[in-house]
């Protein structure tokens, strides 16, 4: 997206209001169509065709009542035990700007594809479970990653967004906000937290807990501790990582980020932390320009950041090598207690914002391999977080194939991947990059 949107502007950490006031205002507000949240009590909704779970009650409470923190969702053990996939969908319908690639069409497109390809609770019964009413994250949860001044500044900016319809909160993406952005961003972070809770609870019931997938936006991996960046508002995965440590005592967290762009926000948040291993594959030279191969962490965290920039044109061959030679051995050495995945689908050959050549089959391979890795290393505790992916067709078919990999079912990539769209991968440059990373990290 760097190429599309021009040069980076500096992040004005902790001073979001003055920053907001500097940007011009245009665009229109799209009403929030997602139902209001229910945070009191819980109710299990089951029928012949649909198994989902919500915490509905008679007393509706809006998302503004979140400052006291969250309540546990407590999914019934029987549901947790049977499920193979848990997912939350947080489409952020009010957070939208016309013709912006990070649009509110993304999550509905995925949900439609899941429905069409018979991967939803309606078709799968208790195998696939949607957690429908999850809690927004609390300010305290977010503040384990982001500065308080950023959080409160963004909250205050909502009244201005309400007056003006849409404002820009950061220039590099550009990252916009509407009047619902703050609440919907808390909701996205909260979806990840709920899935961590549920996956951890399930892992206590048996050896094969379900995998989680947070189908959320706005995405999170570019958001830095002091502010928003690159379409991202709060670092959903970073918040979940800290939460897993704080709430569940899962000390060692591995974050695998295969979005085409470097997850600079996640990287910054944990750069000196030896207990969080951040591993990113991304396109060399793409936005935001960070994630050089020699950036390996600092202080006590030296060695627990691994950046593997791949040359333009790298695709399925590159990622199979990267998984076997970098990702798997790094994880096996680190021995995580949980694996979290920044699952961006913008490395797909059809994606408009970058130049890698992943296919639906590449994403299937990654999901199946990471699932296997989680089973081997951390009791299958694993949650995926949606990051990028801007071609609605390749995004939705690739997420669907990810679900199929989670279920241990064959890929349907052949239906979606046209070999004619691909050209030869730059094998020598790929080999050089992987060898360099192996040497640097003694893998
Ligand atoms: Zn991306």
TrEMBL record:
<feature type="domain" description="Histone deacetylase">
    <location>
        <begin position="100"/>
        <end position="404"/>
    </location>
</feature>
<dbReference type="GO" id="GO:0040029">
    <property type="term" value="P:epigenetic regulation of gene expression"/>
</dbReference>
<dbReference type="Pfam" id="PF00850">
    <property type="entry name" value="Hist_deacetyl"/>
</dbReference>
<dbReference type="GO" id="GO:0000118">
    <property type="term" value="C:histone deacetylase complex"/>
</dbReference>
<dbReference type="GO" id="GO:0004407">
    <property type="term" value="F:histone deacetylase activity"/>
</dbReference>
<protein>
    <recommendedName>
        <fullName>Histone deacetylase domain-containing protein</fullName>
    </recommendedName>
</protein>
<dbReference type="GO" id="GO:0005737">
    <property type="term" value="C:cytoplasm"/>
</dbReference>
<dbReference type="InterPro" id="IPR023801">
    <property type="entry name" value="His_deacetylse_dom"/>
</dbReference>
